[in-house]
Write a structure and sequence with these properties.
Elements lengths: L3 H20 L5 E6 L5 E6 L4 E7 L2 E7 L9 H31 L6 H24 L3 H15 L6 H7 L10 E4 L5 E6 L1 H22 L6
Antiparallel strand pairs: 1-2, 1-6, 2-3, 3-4, 5-6
Helix pairs in contact: 1-2, 1-6, 2-3, 2-4, 3-6
C-alpha cells in the first residue's frame, strides 16, 4: 500500500525536477524593444543560444543563433549562464536520487542510512537551486563588462566618456527594469521562463525539505 506522506514528498520532488528540466532546456533572460514605429523585438538568452522574435504589423518572424553569429561581446555573461546551468544540472541530479529514495519509501520502511541520504540529496538540491537563482543576478554587471570590452575593441575608437555613456544605461545596472528613449522607444529587460522555473523549483524543494524533516514520513 502506498504511504500518503511519502507520496506527497515524492510528487513535490518530481515537480521540482520538472522545473530544473525547464531550466536547462529554455531561455533564462529576455530584452524587449518596443520601437517608435510599432515594431517589437524580443531577444531571449540562454547558455548557448540567442533567439530573436520580431513583430511588426501583426506579422511575426523569429530566428535562433549561436553567440558567435551575434554582434557584440557576451563572454562575461556566458560565464553566469553556464554557472547557472551547472547548478541547475547538479540540482536535478540530487532530485533524481531523492526521488529514488522516496520511491522506495512509498511502499516500505527505508533504513536510517537511506533516510539520511535522502535528506542530504534534498539539501543538496536546495543549495544548488539557491546558487542557480542568485548567480544570474550578476548579469547586469557582466553585461556592462561585455559592453565596455566590445566598445573598446571596436573600430569606432570611442573615448572613455563615450564608452561610459554607451554602457551606462539601466540595463547595465538593474536585473529587472525598463527605460523610455527620447524617440519614444521603450526598452524592458528581465528574467524569463527558465529562471522563473528555477525559483519555483527552489520554493518547492525548500518546502519539501521542511516537510521531510517535520512530518512523520518514515514512521510505520
Amino acid at each position: 500500500m502506498v504511504k500518503v506522506l511519502p507520496l506527497i514528498s515524492f510528487v513535490l520532488i518530481i515537480l521540482a525536477a520538472v522545473c530544473t528540466i525547464i531550466g536547462f532546456s529554455t531561455y533564462w533572460y529576455q530584452i524587449k524593444v518596443e520601437a517608435a514605429d510599432g515594431s517589437v523585438i524580443k531577444t531571449y538568452f540562454k547558455y548557448n543560444k540567442v533567439k530573436a522574435v520580431v513583430t511588426f504589423d501583426g506579422e511575426e518572424a523569429s530566428g535562433t543563433s549561436d553567440y558567435d553569429d551575434v554582434e557584440g561581446e557576451f563572454s562575461a555573461q556566458l560565464k553566469f549562464y553556464k554557472a547557472a546551468l551547472a547548478m541547475d544540472i547538479l540540482a536535478f541530479v540530487n532530485l533524481f536520487f531523492s526521488a529514488c529514495y522516496m520511491g522506495f519509501a512509498l511502499f516500505k520502511q527505508i533504513t536510517p542510512a537511506n533516510q539520511t541520504k535522502l535528506k542530504n540529496s534534498l539539501n543538496g538540491a536546495t543549495v544548488f537551486l539557491i546558487i542557480a537563482t542568485f548567480v544570474v543576478l550578476g548579469l547586469p554587471k557582466a553585461r556592462r563588462e561585455d559592453c565596455e570590452d566590445f566598445a573598446n575593441d571596436s573600430s569606432y575608437n570611442y573615448s572613455g566618456s563615450q564608452v561610459d555613456q554607451i554602457c551606462g544605461g539601466g540595463i547595465y545596472k538593474k536585473f529587472i527594469g525598463s527605460e523610455t528613449e527620447v524617440d519614444g522607444s521603450k526598452y524592458s529587460w528581465g528574467p524569463t521562463t527558465a529562471w522563473i522555473a528555477i525559483v519555483i523549483g527552489l520554493g518547492i524543494t525548500f518546502f519539501n525539505n521542511i516537510f521531510v524533516y517535520v512530518a512523520p514520513i518514515f514512521r510505520e
